[in-house]
């Protein structure tokens, strides 16, 4: 704990500026910075404090809206919150922390200019907030690195939307049954929120899009969900999980439980039950793992690579270091069984960020810290337009009521009134007009046309749909 960190200047000792370094611009990073710039408004104005936010992107992505962005229900720019605009009291640095020496209170930073100069930067700090989030957890499956598509970022979500529509274009323009079958087969691996919601929204979009194709009907498409365990969406409970399987199968989606992806070499998805599916689309949503920067610190980690934290959200056994969200193993003080940790989800991350911000201020002012305690209230999931499941406060909902609750809950949670108003306006307009079904895949290769005109060979990503 910092004792009397904010002290008045004397003739012999000038006031010290306390620098708070926040690593990550996701849920925890954004909400902690918002809390701090509000609580430390006077100190920031007087130069007694400085907040530095380091994020690989200049925006925060509201990930629960990624499936709807992929389906075209929400514009991509409304799924993100610009950090510099919202955090006007902070210094935002677009870059990535690659190592942390907490004993010396320094962080090694690589920025966009690092590739040009070849030099990294060192940022000293007084208080450290580690909130880098998580990255996709992949397995050494043959062909996955070459042909797999992730669903963790906005770029991946929009790229997947373009890819699905392009596959429908390919199927519509060929008479080769093998090419057509592979183009219209979509394999999703992972039965958690990301996989089920992405599959549900994209299948719903593609089904709608077939009305504009003269030779593609919904029955031509194969949608396959592969899950290694015996259930999907465990967060909504066993009953709602079984309902989700029934609902998906009613839409002719092939749900395969207790099944694993063993290979996707040569664009053929081979499953552990012996099934083989020629496909141009393998979407990997089978879990996440802690960000690699955690291993490049001198801070204590648990067996799963997450930071050991106290119920006050400080790093266990270390002073001046804090963490929350996916990167932190926070004890769940509301659980009956000992040793249980809070789930690494958005519901906890947003609430932890508020307590984290308050505790940093309390620490700097030498005040008692607050314990983070929040009982999990439940979960909601969308399965496409007007379809969903929910298990909230012990109540189970399905169909339209669950879908409406999903939208209402996330609209209330997306940061800033600006984004709330824009998303609500888009949903309102979507109810009055037809869906926009168009692929903008060329945006991923903006120089291809010019390179071709200049006599060169247009560069296209070999992993893409070309």
End-to-end distance, in Å? 56 Å
Number of strands: 24
Mean pLDDT: 89
Largest sheet: 7 strands, mixed
GO molecular function: oxidoreductase activity
Organism: Streptomyces gibsoniae
Family: Belongs to the NADH dehydrogenase family.
EC number: 1.6.5.-
List the helices and strands and how they pair.
Layout: E1 18-23, H1 27-39, H2 41-46, E2 49-55, E3 59-61, H3 66-70, E4 80-82, H4 83-86, E5 91-101, E6 106-111, H5 114-117, E7 121-124, E8 127-130, E9 134-136, H6 144-147, E10 148-150, H7 154-172, H8 177-183, E11 185-189, H9 193-209, E12 222-226, H10 238-250, E13 253-256, E14 261-263, E15 268-271, E16 276-278, E17 281-284, E18 288-290, E19 307-308, E20 321-323, E21 328-329, H11 346-364, E22 378-382, E23 388-392, E24 395-398, H12 400-413, H13 417-432, H14 448-453
Parallel strand pairs: 1-2, 1-8, 2-5, 8-20, 10-17, 11-12, 11-17, 12-13, 19-21
Antiparallel strand pairs: 3-4, 5-6, 6-7, 9-18, 14-15, 15-16, 22-23, 23-24
Pfam families: Pyr_redox_2
Domain FAD/NAD(P)-binding: 19-353
Family: Belongs to the NADH dehydrogenase family.
């Amino acid at each position: 704990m910092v004792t009397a960190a904010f002290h008045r200047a004397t003739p012999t000792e000038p006031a010290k500026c306390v620098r708070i370094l926040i690593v990550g611009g996701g849920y925890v990073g954004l909400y902690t910075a918002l809390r701090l710039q509000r609580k430390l408004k006077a100190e920031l104005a007087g130069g007694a404090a400085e907040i530095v936010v380091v994020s690989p992107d200049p925006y925060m992505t509201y990930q629960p809206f990624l499936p709807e962005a992929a389906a075209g229900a929400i514009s991509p720019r409304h799924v993100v919150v610009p950090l510099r605009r919202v955090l006007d009291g902070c210094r935002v640095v677009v870059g990535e922390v690659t190592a942390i020496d907490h004993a010396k209170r320094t962080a090694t930073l690589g920025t966009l200019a690092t590739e040009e100069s070849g030099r990294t930067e060192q940022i000293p700090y007084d208080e450290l907030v580690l909130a880098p989030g998580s990255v996709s957890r992949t397995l050494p499956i043959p062909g996955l690195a070459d042909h797999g598509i992730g669903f963790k970022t906005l770029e991946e979500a929009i790229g997947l939307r373009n890819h699905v529509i392009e596959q429908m274009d390919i199927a519509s323009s060929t008479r080769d049954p093998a090419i057509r079958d592979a183009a219209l087969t979509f394999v999703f691996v992972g039965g958690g929120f990301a996989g089920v919601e992405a599959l549900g929204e994209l299948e719903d979009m593609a089904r709608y899009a077939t009305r504009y194709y003269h030779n593609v009907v919904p029955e031509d498409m194969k949608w396959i969900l592969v899950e290694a365990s015996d259930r999907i969406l465990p967060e909504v409970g066993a009953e709602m999980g079984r309902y989700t399987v029934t609902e998906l199968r009613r839409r002719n989606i092939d749900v395969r439980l207790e099944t694993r992806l063993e290979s996707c070499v040569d664009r053929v998805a081979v499953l552990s039950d012996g099934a083989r599916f020629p496909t141009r689309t393998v979407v990997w949503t089978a879990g996440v793992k802690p960000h690699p920067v955690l291993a490049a610190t001198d801070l204590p980690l648990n067996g799963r690579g997450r930071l050991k934290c106290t119920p006050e959200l400080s790093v266990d056994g270390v002073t001046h270091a804090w963490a929350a969200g996916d990167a932190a193993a926070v004890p769940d003080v509301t659980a009956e069984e000992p040793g249980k940790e809070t789930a690494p989800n958005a519901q906890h991350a947003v609430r932890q960020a508020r307590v984290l911000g308050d505790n940093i201020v309390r620490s700097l002012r030498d005040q008692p810290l607050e314990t983070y305690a929040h009982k999990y209230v439940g979960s909601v999931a969308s399965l496409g337009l007007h379809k969903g499941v929910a298990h909230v406060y012990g109540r189970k909902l399905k169909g339209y009521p669950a879908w409406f609750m999903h939208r209402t809950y996330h609209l209330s949670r997306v940061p800033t009134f600006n984004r709330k108003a824009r998303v609500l306006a888009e949903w309102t307009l979507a109810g009055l007009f037809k869906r926009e079904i168009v692929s903008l895949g060329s945006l991923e290769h903006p120089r291809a046309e010019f390179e071709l005109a200049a006599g060169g060979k247009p560069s296209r990503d070999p992993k893409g749909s070309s």
